[in-house]
């Protein structure tokens, strides 16, 4: 079987899962608003996902390393996604939405991380670019955001469960054709996991990137509400995500050409600078079309940052614990940062409006960029990177 053929099911999985992810990320805040929740309450519901992921990411990563299978864990999680999404969307009261949301997210949040972990390992095995595989997730996200945005503008936000289940079933079907990864080592033990927690450069790196990832996650949660605050429709929210994720896909697709030229921390710092500029510009606009025009910066921020950070984390942790390490990174990026971004962002957008929220995000990203620059200058990052690379 050729390289490209053996990767087709994996690319299809990333495409279809990220298509479902778009629907939750882009439209759940608007759906909750339709259900009668205010900004602060929406923030609480959006924080449940990241809270669940803090437990779910390391748990499923550990199970994946322990039983030496990524494929089976992805299948279990997708079945959970399909079953619990149906129940989650039936809920009407805030408490019921929060409880079912926690169970739903426990299965949903690890799928992206496990898919990317599988893609990273398959890329290494086949000697191809991780970005060339990962871009299919971005293409799925972009396609879904554009089409579903238009559909929901016409039929109503209350029907968002239908396209969600459609893409979810496709994701499940393609998993049966996935090629799993082989890990030739002893089963991972809990004591091995503590070695990751004691890895100082890894922990400091995660702490510093949170200044950037909190702002990224706050934007994920509230860009849709900000666009509607500025007078935009569901269709415009979809268009904004489409433009952003299209540039992200281009960054991933071309990673093979530009990524190896510098140390990953250099790319992370550059992405941090652009993040700061991006949020300050969002704070200054007064027309939803300006947000769409600026969304090309999504690829230059998230696309570059994610590739570089994922690569750097892969170098910091031993091969035996790759899934666990990747999922701890995800738990920080999409979990802890998501909780802070959702709760603080929800309260801010409610009390002070979207412009103040984005100005605060720009300031936070600037602090994070300065801290990461210091981290890069100090021997921490470089020494560990060279040490791992030479092994």
UniProtKB/TrEMBL annotation:
Boundaries of every Major facilitator superfamily (MFS) profile domain copy: 196-391
Lipid bilayer topology: Multi-pass membrane protein
Residue intervals passing through the bilayer: 12-30, 42-60, 72-89, 95-114, 126-148, 160-179, 200-218, 238-258, 265-285, 291-313, 325-349, 355-378
PANTHER family on file: 3-PHENYLPROPIONIC ACID TRANSPORTER-RELATED, BLL5896 PROTEIN
Organism per entry: Virgibacillus tibetensis
Subcellular location(s) per record: Cell inner membrane
Principal cellular location given in the protein's record: membrane
Name under which the protein is recorded: MFS transporter
Pfam (any one): MFS_1_like
Domain of life: Bacteria
The entry's keywords: Cell inner membrane, Cell membrane, Membrane, Transmembrane, Transmembrane helix, Transport
């Amino acid at each position: 079987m050729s390289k490209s053929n053996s990767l087709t099911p994996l690319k299809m999985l990333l495409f279809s899962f990220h298509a479902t992810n778009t629907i939750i990320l882009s439209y759940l805040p608007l759906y909750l608003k339709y259900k009668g929740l205010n900004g602060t309450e929406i923030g609480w519901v959006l924080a449940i996902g990241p809270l669940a992921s803090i437990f779910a990411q390391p748990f499923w990563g550990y199970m994946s390393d322990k039983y030496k299978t990524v494929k089976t864990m992805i299948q279990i999680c997708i079945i959970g996604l399909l079953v619990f999404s149906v129940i989650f969307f039936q809920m009407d009261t805030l408490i019921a939405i929060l409880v079912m949301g926690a169970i739903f997210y426990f299965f949903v949040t690890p799928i992206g991380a496990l898919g990317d972990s599988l893609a990273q390992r398959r890329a290494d095995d086949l000697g191809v670019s991780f970005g060339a595989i990962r871009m299919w997730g971005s293409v799925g996200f972009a396609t879904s955001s554009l089409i579903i945005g238009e559909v929901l503008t016409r039929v109503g936000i209350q029907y968002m469960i239908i396209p969600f289940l459609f893409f979810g079933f496709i994701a499940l079907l393609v998993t049966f054709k996935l090629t799993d990864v082989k890990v030739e080592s002893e089963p991972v033990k809990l004591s091995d996991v503590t070695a990751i927690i004691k890895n100082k450069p890894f922990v400091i790196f995660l702490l510093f990137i949170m200044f950037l990832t909190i702002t990224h996650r706050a934007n994920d949660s509230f860009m849709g509400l900000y666009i509607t605050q500025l007078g935009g429709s569901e269709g415009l929210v979809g268009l904004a995500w489409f433009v952003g994720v299209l540039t992200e896909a281009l960054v991933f697709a071309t990673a093979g050409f530009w990524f190896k030229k510098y140390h990953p921390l250099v790319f992370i710092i550059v992405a941090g600078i652009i993040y700061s500029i991006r949020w300050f510009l969002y704070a200054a606009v007064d027309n939803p079309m300006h947000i769409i025009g600026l969304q090309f910066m999504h690829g230059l921020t998230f696309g570059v940052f994610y590739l570089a950070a994922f690569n750097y984390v892969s170098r910091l942790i031993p091969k035996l614990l790759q899934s666990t390490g990747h999922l701890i990174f995800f738990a920080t990026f999409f979990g802890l940062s998501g909780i802070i971004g959702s709760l603080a962002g929800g309260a801010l957008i409610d009390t002070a409006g979207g412009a103040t929220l984005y100005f605060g995000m720009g300031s936070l990203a600037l602090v994070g960029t300065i801290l990461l620059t210091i981290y890069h200058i100090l021997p921490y990052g470089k020494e560990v990177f060279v040490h791992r690379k030479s092994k």
